[in-house]
Specification:
- The structure is a single chain.
- β16 and β17 form a beta hairpin.
- The strands form six sheets. The chain has a five-stranded antiparallel β-sheet. The chain has a five-stranded antiparallel β-sheet with strand order 8-7-6-9-10.
- By secondary structure, the protein is an alpha+beta fold.
- α8 crosses α9.
- About 3% of the residues have low confidence.
- It has nine helices and 30 strands.
- It has six domains: 75 residues, Beta Barrel (OB fold (Dihydrolipoamide Acetyltransferase, E2P)); 70 residues, OB fold (Dihydrolipoamide Acetyltransferase, E2P) (Beta Barrel), CATH 2.40.50.140; 74 residues, Nucleic acid-binding proteins (OB fold (Dihydrolipoamide Acetyltransferase, E2P)); 83 residues, OB fold (Dihydrolipoamide Acetyltransferase, E2P), CATH 2.40.50; 83 residues, OB fold (Dihydrolipoamide Acetyltransferase, E2P) (Beta Barrel), CATH 2.40.50; 81 residues, Nucleic acid-binding proteins (OB fold (Dihydrolipoamide Acetyltransferase, E2P), Beta Barrel), CATH 2.40.50.
- The radius of gyration is 57 Å and the shape is elongated.
């Protein structure tokens, strides 16, 4: 037996080394806190020396509960560094445990929790137990997330879909878990869905034609026409993303998993009792909700609208467009003219809520009465004059002047001009009033013109217009006459239309006066024939005197022939 004194120093060192455990760099072992110091703890792992781990490697909670004798998992960075000291790390040991846990979670497809740290191109950086992983944008949710910044700081459950310890690479997915959860919800929801079922949902997305509602694993379409009984132009007027709704299942196709939903169907259809609430001839108030070229749609209540046709807006005005009378949003009083609940149509009238001015016309106006009004419109056939009751009377172009040939009323009138006229006729059935302007004065054709221009009178007049059928001449201002083509033949077979020009004075004989039709016919031919007859009478008289002095026999025919021969010479 060898005594201790007989053991050499080298043998003593080898013996000491044999009593300690063998350790490798990068290994995680369990140690024991030997002494808790101000800036760290001294840890014994059964090595030939102890190591100090800095306080900075502990969280506040961990440091507070740490005491002498506490067990601790540590990572061996270096069994013996250049200074001959043991280097341990609690922080790296924790990371090693996290990596092992993440790998186990990846292999077993179990979820892990991570905190969203920051946003980078293509996705988010996530802290999973102190290790940073990448959450791609496509794996954040079932649908694209517009506001990624809203997720910062949130703790979310995710699945490890890729892990590489050597490259410190971890790829996570939240969508995988959501799809799995959604699948379970879908199965449950599909098992219970049926038409007519009331079901709770959340608005997930809104389009121009409707809103998609998450019913629990499956989306249903709430079409815009099924949102409200009333008129809406966009679903966002009623619902918003995130709204919780209770909707009615209208239709459900189990094979295609398409669900049609309704919101308005939760309340009765207002049209079923509309005829009771809106009897014909009753008056109601409504709001103008839409305008078209042919009228205005008026909302009487949510879901019940009627059309006020453009022809039912005014008793007197010829309304060209409803915007001239009402605007969208106006509150108006209307009368119910007709209602058809089957076709869901109501005919409305605005003018029926006012007194019809034509009911007062016959009592306020009589034929021959003089009235004043303002010219409101001019047309080719006359001028419309607005009367105090709001109705219009027409001065026809033929009733503007007795004597002047008026081609268009604008020759005498203009819009906005105040004029006086005479009531010629009131037609209540056709809602028309005929007015006369020339009737304000006596008709010169009744006595003055026929007396001034009797048949047979020869006058000097001025050519004002030449036509194929004759020549129009002016006898005096406002008084015209016509020389027909048949009354214009003169010497050598020429016509007067070939001989005269406009503005030229001519002499003619009045051959006809028609006071009823206000026409005067004249003739230049008559003047020529009279002149020829007079000349011939003088000639015959002279020849007769000569015959009395001469014994030679003669006849009237021979005398005329002799005279004609002399004219030719």
């Amino acid at each position: 037996m060898t005594t201790i004194e007989e053991i050499s120093t080298e043998q003593m060192l080898e013996l000491c080394d044999a009593t300690f455990k063998n350790f490798n760099e990068g290994e995680v072992v369990e140690g024991q806190v030997v002494e808790k110091q101000r800036d760290g703890v001294m840890v014994d792992i059964g090595f030939k020396m102890e190591a100090v781990i800095s306080k900075n490697e502990f969280s506040t909670e961990e440091w507070d509960v740490l005491e002498d004798g506490s067990a601790l998992q540590v990572y061996i960075e270096n069994p013996e560094n250049r200074d001959g000291k043991l280097v341990l790390s609690k922080e790296k040991a924790d990371r090693m445990k996290v990596w092992e846990a993440l790998k186990d979670a990846h292999d077993a497809n179990t979820p892990v929790e991570g905190v969203i740290l920051s946003r980078i191109k293509g996705g988010l950086i996530v802290d999973v137990g102190g290790i940073k992983g990448f959450l791609p944008g496509s794996q954040i949710d079932l649908r694209p997330v517009r506001d990624l910044d809203a997720l910062l700081g949130q703790t979310l459950a995710m699945q490890v879909i890729k892990i590489n310890r050597k490259r410190n690479n971890i790829v996570l997915s939240r969508r995988v878990l959501l799809e799995e959860e959604r699948g379970k919800l879908r199965d449950t929801t599909l098992a219970n869905l049926e038409p007519g079922l009331l079901i709770d949902g959340v608005v997930k997305n809104i389009t121009d034609y409707g809103a998609f509602v998450d019913l629990g694993g499956i989306d249903g379409l709430l079409h815009i026409t099924d949102i409200s009984w009333g008129r809406i132009s966009h679903p966002s007027e009623v619902v918003k993303v995130g709204d919780k709704l209770q909707v009615v299942v209208l239709r459900f196709d189990r094979e295609s998993q398409r669900v049609s939903l309704g919101l308005k169907q939760k309340t009765p259809d207002p049209w079923t009792t509309a005829a009771e609430r809106y009897p014909v001839n009753s008056r109601v108030n409504g709001k103008v909700v839409s305008l078209t070229d042919y009228g205005a749609f008026v909302e009487l209540e949510k879901g019940v609208e009627g059309l006020c046709h453009i022809s039912e807006m005014s008793w007197t005005s010829d309304v060209k467009h409803p915007s001239k009378v009402v605007s969208v949003g106006d509150e108006v009083e209307v009368a119910i003219l007709n209602i058809n609940t089957e076709s869901r149509k109501i005919s409305l009238g605005m003018k029926q809520t006012q007194t019809n001015p034509w009911d007062l016309v016959e009592s306020n106006y009589a034929e021959g009465q003089r009235v004043k009004g303002v010219v409101r419109n001019l047309t080719d056939f006359g001028a419309f004059v607005g009367l105090p009751e709001g109705i219009d009377g027409l001065i026809h172009v033929s009733d503007i002047s007795y004597t002047k040939h008026i081609k268009h009323p604008s020759e005498l009138f203009q819009k906005g001009q105040e004029v006086e006229a005479v009531i010629l006729k009131v037609d209540r059935s056709k809602e028309r009033i005929s007015l006369g302007y020339k009737q304000l004065e006596a008709d010169p054709w009744e006595d003055r013109i026929p007396e001034s221009y009797p048949v047979g009178k020869v006058i000097s007049c001025k050519v004002i217009k030449i036509a194929d059928f004759g020549v129009f001449v002016e006898l005096e201002e406002g008084v015209e006459g016509l020389i027909p083509a048949s009354e214009m033949i003169i010497s050598d077979g020429k016509r007067m239309s070939d001989m005269v020009t406009e503005g030229e004075p001519v002499e003619a004989k009045i051959i006809r006066v028609d006071a009823d039709d206000q026409k005067i016919a004249l003739s230049t031919r008559a003047l020529t024939e009279e002149s020829d007859a007079g000349n011939m009478a003088d000639f015959v008289a002279k020849q007769k005197q000569s015959s009395d002095r001469s014994p030679a026999p003669t006849t009237l025919g021979s005398l005329i022939q002799d005279q004609l021969n002399k004219d030719k010479d």
